[in-house]
Structure formats: C-alpha cells, structure tokens
UniProtKB/TrEMBL annotation:
This is Uncharacterized protein. It comes from Paraburkholderia panacisoli.
C-alpha cells in the first residue's frame, strides 16, 4: 500500500466516524424531541431546543449545519459537511 492509499484510507475512516457521530447525535435529539425541521419555500429549516439554527436547500446540509451550530463550532460550513 502506498503512502497516498494509506492517507486516503485513513481519511475515509475519519469521515465515516464523523458521519456516524453526527447521525447518532441527530437520533438522540430526535428521540428526545429536541430537533425539528420543515421544508419551506426558503428550504429546510432546522431548529434545536426551539432555536432556529439553519436554513438550507438540502436537508442533509441543514441538519449538519444546525448540529454544528448547536455544538458551538465556529466554522459551521465545513463541520460535518462532506467535501
């Protein structure tokens, strides 16, 4: 295995872990009835604990950005968003 292939494999594993962490948190928030979303003319609106945190055209991105903001991540656009 080349160095490039090893780095690629490690990056994929890291991305998979981050994705699993995100959707685990989403599931917990959902079960606790703390996260809400709706599709409007402006896109997907997502709120956590009755606080609006994201409006995006993509449901996936709206959830990712809302959770990143909920966790206090300063760079919400890159947090949890696949590149």
């Amino acid at each position: 295995m080349t160095n490039f292939e090893l780095r690629r494999l490690m990056a994929a594993a890291s991305a998979n872990q981050e994705d699993a962490d995100l959707w685990r948190l989403f599931s917990n928030l959902y079960e606790e009835r703390r996260i809400r979303w709706c599709n409007s003319a402006r896109g997907w609106l997502v709120s956590i604990d009755n606080r609006h945190l994201a409006t995006e055209s993509s449901f996936d991105q709206a959830i990712r950005i809302a959770i990143a903001r909920f966790q206090g991540k300063s760079d919400c656009r890159s947090a949890f968003i696949p590149r």
